[in-house]
Design goal:
Elements (H helix, E strand, L loop, with lengths): L1 H15 L4 H15 L4 H13 L4 H40 L7 H31 L9 H21 L5 H15 L1
């Protein structure tokens, strides 16, 4: 039964995850929390690990959740389900819709999805900051270490362009976060 739940849960994520990995995180969170597969804290840690390891966040998260619930077969079910919709869609596009991007209505739909995806990513980021810094689910105590780390990383990210003349790469931010995490924790 767990294999079917993993497959259907991550198939849902795969079908509805527009805008890439960051747009899928709220969907993954919803599936994982609704089934009680991981705690919110553990999922947050896995998101951080998935960002810093090679491969797609969706693939990494689905593999981890599947493995944590049902071993290697569970990882295979969850990962296959997460990538199957994109695989099918790409095959259909390649086969039947070679000229789809030339159609104005298709362009309009895709351009209309851009602000939606940006909003989903922003909401997820705000949720993660609030949950980790202000620990709403743990009684609302402000985590001083988490606040300092968030402010430092935000300063590097937003101040990087002024200081270095270019934006700081996500890889550099991950490395900086890792080093700061070692010193702070």
């Amino acid at each position: 039964m767990i294999y079917l739940q993993l497959f259907l849960g991550f198939l849902n994520v795969g079908f509805l995850a527009f805008g890439g990995a960051y747009g899928a995180i709220p969907l993954i969170r919803d599936v994982v929390m609704s089934h009680g597969w991981l705690t919110d804290e553990m999922l947050t840690y896995m998101i951080a690990v998935s960002e810093s390891t090679p491969g797609s966040i969706v693939v990494n998260l689905s593999t981890y959740v599947g493995y944590s619930q049902a071993g290697i077969l569970g990882a295979l079910c969850a990962t296959t389900a997460a990538v199957l919709p994109a695989f099918i869609i790409i095959l259909l596009i390649a086969k039947f819709l070679k000229n789809a991007m030339k159609i104005k209505s298709v362009q309009a739909i895709l351009y209309g999805l851009n602000p939606c995806v940006a909003g989903i990513i922003l909401a997820t980021g705000i949720y993660m900051v609030i949950e980790n810094v202000f620990a709403i689910s743990k009684g609302g105590a402000i985590g001083l270490k988490e606040l300092v780390l968030t402010l430092l990383l935000g300063g590097v990210m937003f101040g990087g362009k002024k200081i270095f003349g270019k934006t700081v790469s996500p890889i550099a931010l991950i490395l900086i976060a890792a080093v700061l995490g070692i010193f702070i924790y």
